[in-house]
Specification:
heterotrimer; A mainly alpha; B alpha/beta; C alpha/beta; A: mainly alpha; B: alpha/beta; D-Maltodextrin-Binding Protein, domain 2; 2 domains; ten-stranded mixed β-sheet; 11 helices; 10 strands; about 45% helix; globular
């Protein structure tokens, strides 16, 4: 199809030319999503480990909620964050709407359940294996969580990559809270949406094609990590 | 080991978030997709910045959403094209006043072979009647936009309200002009658009302008600075300067001279 | 291996354990003193593993009492399981981890770990991933790891059940070494020959009850109980 041929040509031109606008869009995408994933891990790893290990009433409900929120539609998250950050909302005084910070907040909320729910599963499985040994050593809660998270590092690495994949590819949340402002909150996905709405389908497709190597790199990283871990017999 | 990791994590995060958190406060303008789609804003606001040094950031939504965000004080100034809603907005106390900036033309576009005979219609309302008579496929924005309001006004003049019937020929996308035009292009359907969006739309397919001109197809844009008494945090002074510049000789001349493929999508207000 | 005060003797009184309405251990009472190697002997399903876990504190009894001479007993004990739990780290990493959990200062851990590895004959394998070791090597690592934490009492739950004769011999040699250094050995096994090799005293367990207890020599020469006689004769007991 004609659009595809033009799209490949446009993608190629974008990549080769190091167009500064394009580079700043890619840079912002990475900054927002990487920061969001880092924050999501900071919250999600201990949260998942805690839910996996602790006994408390309502635990089953928490697990159910975590698993359910993995599938939160990005546009819903965006809407909720928007309502919170709008000047008319409870956090309006912070003036964060339409800034990259708002985008990071939204993506963090999106990714944290993924990290927490998968961490919970991984840690719970590992606890079945390690539990008696750790209790025999009389390990306290912190030592237990640290041991499990450390030994699950390879599986957790793929969880991180899964979270990143989700963040970098979503458009609903960042569009609503970021506003797709040129040179300020425009990322790859919102740029693609914009070009599509302008009818510039080749450009939109071209941008999408550029997004592909990123997705490829992420998945390749997952594969390499898993292979290396299997070889060294350390896969959880 | 844990503490080392924690320190690294915090340092990493600080490095990443510092630039994104320490945002200066540029002027926040809310405007509609039709203005943005025309490509006018980029060069216009650049000219404004060159002259005044004021950086303007633009968020683009439909008129309804823009005015709603204006009411909650999330913008410093808004530029929309929905006169009734604008007057209500100012009357409600959220805007300082309504300042006309420019006009564009509404257009009825459709498949070039024009099965409904829109080209030969005596006026805009009659054109809509002919489409409904077929009925021929019609794509509407169906959002709370100025364009949508004007479209419904025309249907009203023809004594019709196709959005109430669940007919298959009248489809509402609930989306911006671009998505709506895309659908019309793909389906070879009729639709209602305006010159700002149309001149820059790249995916026309076999769509052509079939009807334009006349009293009901004028599309006036106005700029409204948000009232700092109700929303004390707005950058009122910078907003005022933008309003003055846009409605003043320099801004108006710029708008008059703006061309897309040799066509002027907008006419200055004065 | 005793500190300022010993956690032994261990006194077990009328211990019972029930799960899913089934009484798996009933009215078990005995005292363990320091010194002699104690072997819990009995057929599969007798309740030996359960008893070890209860004594070690991994399970809570349904009724009855487990009393050590002093409190804070957990840190003076160690346990080795039938299938060794190997962390996803290097061989020496497994030991330094255990030492870290036990609060041993960072500077001391490597030296103590290396000493334990040397004792177990695992020094050349120090940097290997623990999980690629053979079954016998892993069990020796588990023993070295337990040894490094300087326990007063070492519980072993059928440590050689999954090992071939050569590996079994090397593990038994290690156990002998620990005993010689003063650690109290309490081992569960269903292997009559192994019990003969290792035990100083026998606690014969069958169907959740402590049937007989006595010196190893006396037990093997002339078991007091009918079940004991049958077991020593090599007859199958369920």
């Amino acid at each position: 199809m004609d659009s595809f041929a033009t799209a490949f040509a446009e993608a190629g031109a974008l990549l080769v030319s190091f167009d500064p606008d394009f580079l700043s869009i890619v840079g912002l995408s990475l900054r927002v999503s990487l920061t969001a994933v880092a924050l999501a891990c900071l919250i999600g790893f201990p949260l998942g480990a805690l839910v996996a290990l602790a006994r408390f009433p309502g635990r089953g409900v928490i697990v159910l909620l975590l698993n359910t929120f993995m599938g939160l539609p990005p546009v819903v998250v965006g809407l909720i964050v928007f309502l919170l950050l709008s000047r008319a909302g409870p956090l309006g005084v912070l003036g964060l709407l339409f800034t990259p910070t708002a985008m990071i907040i939204a993506q963090t909320i999106l990714v944290t359940p993924i990290v927490a729910a998968l961490t919970r599963q991984i840690v719970a499985d590992l606890w079945v294996e390690y539990g008696e040994h750790l209790r025999s050593l009389d390990a306290g809660p912190v030592a237990t969580m640290t041991t499990l998270i450390t030994d699950a590092r390879y599986s957790l690495a793929t969880v991180v990559l899964a979270g990143f994949g989700r963040a970098i590819a979503e458009v609903g949340a960042v569009m609503i809270v970021g506003g797709n402002i040129d040179h300020a909150t425009r990322v790859m996905t919102t740029a693609i949406a914009l070009e599509t709405s302008k009818g510039n389908l080749s450009t939109a497709l071209g941008l999408g094609i550029v997004l592909l190597p990123l997705a490829l790199a992420v998945n390749a990283a997952v594969q390499i990590i898993n292979a290396s871990a299997s070889r060294r017999a350390v896969l959880a | 080991m844990v503490t080392r990791f924690a320190v690294l994590a915090v340092a990493f995060l600080a490095a990443f978030t510092a630039p994104v958190v320490a945002d200066d406060r540029p002027l926040l303008l809310g405007t509609t997709t039709s203005v943005d789609n025309s490509g006018l804003l980029g060069p216009l606001l650049k000219a404004f910045r060159d002259e005044t040094g004021i950086e303007v950031r633009t968020v683009v939504r439909g008129s309804g959403a823009i005015l709603q965000l204006g009411r909650s004080g999330d913008f410093d100034v808004v530029l929309v094209h929905h006169p009734d809603a604008e007057r209500a907005f100012v009357a409600g106390g959220d805007g300082l006043g309504r300042y006309p900036v420019m006009t564009s033309r509404f257009l009825i576009v459709g498949p070039d072979d024009d099965p409904a005979g829109v080209r030969a219609a005596p006026d805009a309302a009659a054109a809509m009647e002919r489409i409904a008579a077929g009925p021929y496929d019609f794509i509407s924005r169906g959002d709370e936009s100025g364009t949508n309001a004007a479209e419904r006004h025309l249907w009203g003049l023809a004594g019709l309200s196709p959005w109430t019937a669940r007919g298959g020929w009248y489809r509402e996308t609930g989306s911006g002009m671009g998505a709506t035009l895309n659908m019309a292009s793909v389906l070879s359907a009729y639709t209602f658009t305006e010159s700002g969006s149309w001149t820059n739309f790249a995916n026309r397919g076999d769509l052509a302008v079939l009807f334009e001109g006349g009293p009901h197809l004028e599309n006036p844009y106005a700029i409204i600075p948000i009232d700092p008494e109700r929303h004390p945090h707005v950058a009122a002074r910078d907003a005022r300067r933008l309003v003055d510049w846009l409605t003043g000789p320099v801004g108006q001349a710029f708008i008059a001279g703006f061309r897309v493929d040799g066509e002027p999508p907008f006419a200055p207000a004065r | 291996m005793s500190g300022p005060a010993s956690i032994l003797p261990l006194q077990v009184s009328h211990l019972a354990f029930e799960a899913n309405g089934v009484r798996l251990l009933d009215d078990v009472s005995f005292t363990l003193q320091a010194g002699r190697r104690a072997v819990l002997l009995g057929p599969n399903g007798a309740g030996k593993s359960l008893l070890l876990r209860l004594c070690h504190g991994l399970l809570r009894p349904t009724s009855g009492e487990i009393r050590w001479a002093i409190e804070g007993r957990a840190r003076r004990q160690a346990m080795v399981f039938q299938r060794p739990v190997m962390l996803r780290r290097s061989v020496i990493g497994n030991i330094t981890h255990a030492l870290a959990v036990r609060g041993v200062p960072r500077g001391e851990r490597t030296a103590r770990a290396e000493a334990a590895l040397a004792l177990a004959g695992l020094s050349p394998l120090a940097r290997r991933p623990a999980r690629v070791l053979s079954g016998g090597e892993q069990q020796r690592l588990a023993l070295a790891r337990a040894w490094a934490t300087e326990p007063e009492i070492l519980f072993l739950d059928e440590p050689c059940a999954s090992l071939d004769p050569a590996a079994t011999r090397s593990v038994e040699a290690l156990i002998e070494g620990f005993h010689a250094a003063g650690t109290k050995i309490v081992m569960a096994t269903h292997d009559l020959a192994q019990a003969r090799r290792i035990a100083d005293e026998i606690l014969f367990v069958h169907k959740g009850r402590l049937i007989e207890r006595g010196d190893a020599d006396s037990f093997f020469d002339a078991p007091q109980s009918e079940e004991g006689r049958a077991f020593v004769a090599g007859e199958l007991l369920w």
